[in-house]
Amino acid sequence: MIRDAERTKKLLLKAATDEFAAYGIAGARIDRIAASAGVNKAMIYSYFESKDNLFDTVFNAMTSASLEQVVFDVADLPGYAGRLFDSFEDNPDTVRLTTWYQLERPHGTPLHAVVASNAAKLHELRGAIAAGTLPDRFEPVEFLALVRAVVLSWSTTVPELGPAVPKDRARRRAVIVDAVRRLIAFD
Amino acid sequence: MIRDAERTKKLLLKAATDEFAAYGIAGARIDRIAASAGVNKAMIYSYFESKDNLFDTVFNAMTSASLEQVVFDVADLPGYAGRLFDSFEDNPDTVRLTTWYQLERPHGTPLHAVVASNAAKLHELRGAIAAGTLPDRFEPVEFLALVRAVVLSWSTTVPELGPAVPKDRARRRAVIVDAVRRLIAFD
DNA sequence: GCTTGTCAACTAAAAAGTTAGTTGTAAAAT
DNA sequence: ATTTTACAACTAACTTTTTAGTTGACAAGC
């Protein structure tokens, strides 16, 4: 039997990511994570102190990866929206984990990486508004919230609407990109 | 001790609504609901079969009430968005319960009231597009998804953005109404 | 007295977390 | 080069805590 702590940790993190994305913090089962990783349960407590701490590790890793993946471009917000949409479609776990986090950790410590990334985006937006590249009808934080909300359109859709939602991913993407274009348009 | 089955049920439903909104299905605790309602735990099982069934009851009641409260007006989508926003701000539990439901009940039975209400909205939207009242760049379902997403802008905001979010509710409302106005504008 | 509402105490099962002991590995000692 | 030693990786079984759900006794109103 080979022994490889790093490999074991990776297996656990992968399994934990799937489990938390599917069931949330309260719904996740330590035994299920261990079984699905093919690793002994005690290893979880050896490498990650507790269930809560395991979730934090998973969430931080996911968030960092997600932030790096999608580059912000204040000169092309519709393009940014499209890339963000692609990222969410390719990694639906990201959206679910973030939603669980917001629901189950209403007072979680703000992640430094996210704070920094948002500050940078707000700063760029402020600059673009000042320079006249973007209209001044919305504040920077308002642009950011609106773009994010529009990108999440198909995720926040109620299940009852499900069957009517366009099957074609390209179409769903085009709707979002076009909507953002209209939000930032000069009259 | 006074005996009033209806009163007891109401107390339990109120407590259960708060509990499920705060902690979700997996995170909710039957003992906490009973304690917060000031009612014995066994009453829950007497009036509502199980934890799952209690959640369904809470969710159906909340959904029906929420649907009735906000009237749809295809001739004034920005106004509808504003009223929906007000409803969500006044009853934040509604948004949380719906989100929990989407996460924890991915294959829940579609609620008849919601299905009917959505069908009616889609039908009206189709009519408005055909009549030229609304632009034809988006399908009915796309309008609905976009409007809902925009209304939820401040709810889907990541916590790290929290401090930057406008404190003024009227301003947050105005942003949403204006955004919807732009989405339905003719060029 | 019979039905229905209420309650405290109980049960069974599930879940998180722990422990005592085993095994592989790699470096030090021979 | 082999053996020894030390430690990290690992395991199975265990303990403790939590939680959904139950029961049987008692009380209130008809």
UniProtKB/TrEMBL annotation, chains A, B:
<dbReference type="GO" id="GO:0006355">
    <property type="term" value="P:regulation of DNA-templated transcription"/>
</dbReference>
<feature type="DNA-binding region" description="H-T-H motif">
    <location>
        <begin position="29"/>
        <end position="48"/>
    </location>
</feature>
<feature type="domain" description="HTH tetR-type">
    <location>
        <begin position="6"/>
        <end position="66"/>
    </location>
</feature>
<keyword id="KW-0238">DNA-binding</keyword>
<dbReference type="Pfam" id="PF17926">
    <property type="entry name" value="TetR_C_21"/>
</dbReference>
<protein>
    <submittedName>
        <fullName>TetR/AcrR family transcriptional regulator</fullName>
    </submittedName>
</protein>
<dbReference type="InterPro" id="IPR036271">
    <property type="entry name" value="Tet_transcr_reg_TetR-rel_C_sf"/>
</dbReference>
<dbReference type="InterPro" id="IPR050109">
    <property type="entry name" value="HTH-type_TetR-like_transc_reg"/>
</dbReference>
<dbReference type="InterPro" id="IPR001647">
    <property type="entry name" value="HTH_TetR"/>
</dbReference>
<dbReference type="GO" id="GO:0003677">
    <property type="term" value="F:DNA binding"/>
</dbReference>
<dbReference type="Pfam" id="PF00440">
    <property type="entry name" value="TetR_N"/>
</dbReference>
<dbReference type="InterPro" id="IPR041467">
    <property type="entry name" value="Sco4008_C"/>
</dbReference>
<dbReference type="InterPro" id="IPR009057">
    <property type="entry name" value="Homeodomain-like_sf"/>
</dbReference>
